[in-house]
Amino acid sequence: RMAISPGRDAAFSSQKSALSESPRTKKFPLTEEELFYMNCRAAYLTVFKSSLENIISKEQLYLALQHAGRNPSQKTINKYWTPQTA
């Protein structure tokens, strides 16, 4: 599945609430991994209403990647979107 799983959303929500409850316990700036995740989630949400929605076509995958600041070639899209992709 290409979509972010509910477990990841739950982890993000609990992380977000931990940040808002006591911002002094979290060191800033955010780690590279946290920034990457936040940027990917934001890009996904520019294409879909919910991060629980699945990408169901090559076109949607391409659009989500473009919103994430990537410009994948058709060859790259074909590499990751095969007839077996669910």
Automatic annotation (TrEMBL):
GO terms for molecular function: metal ion binding. One of its GO terms (cellular component) is plasma membrane protein complex. Residues 1-25 are annotated as: Disordered. Keywords: Metal-binding, Repeat. Residues 12-22 have a biased composition (Polar residues). GO terms for biological process: positive regulation of protein localization to ciliary membrane. PANTHER family: EF-HAND CALCIUM-BINDING DOMAIN-CONTAINING PROTEIN 7. This is EF-hand calcium binding domain 7.
